[in-house]
Request: fold
Amino acid sequence: MNEQVSVLIPEDQIARRVAELGQEITRSYSGREITILGLMKGSLVFMADLIRKVPLDLTVHLVRVTSQREQAAGRVLTEIVYSTAVPLEGRDVLLVADIVDTGITLSYLLAHIHEHAPATLRVCALVDKPEARKIDVHPDWTAFPVQEPLSDRFLVGYGLDWMERFRGLPFIGTIPRPQPR
Ligand code: IMP
Ligand code: MG
Reply:
């Protein structure tokens, strides 16, 4: 099953980086309670590791978004398909995302969360592919920014999927870019 996957970021490197991010986030929110919102399903593994490196009071919630890209019409339909009932008003909200690619998913979600009037809203992403950006959004923390030529590879593992496969790999790997997306 995993024959065509090559390792890009090995398990121990992910663990070190997640621990570092945990420390930065802990310093940044020191003394406050964080409302963590995990973007399903890609951030599942990342979030599970990250929250164990943040020894602060926190609550964990999930949100799921779907995007349908209609290439011909150049139209993107994004909608929230699932969200745990969580009061965000006045909270320090940290959105944990898997990959920021075009930025369409993230910007849609940020606009939606803003409507609920959080006190602060910040984003921690596992992977950022800044060169693919169509909407200008920037995560506050990124575990792994990837630049050309890596930004052109399709990433799987550590929660990331291709057609729902590969989420359970303990490392981040790449497969040949599927056509078309
Ligand atoms: P965006 O709206 O283009 O920023 O897309 C973000 C979403 O696309 C992420 O939440 C991922 O689920 C998915 N995605 C983008 N690039 C990859 C990749 O290389 N591997 C797996 N999923 C990806
Ligand atoms: Mg996916």
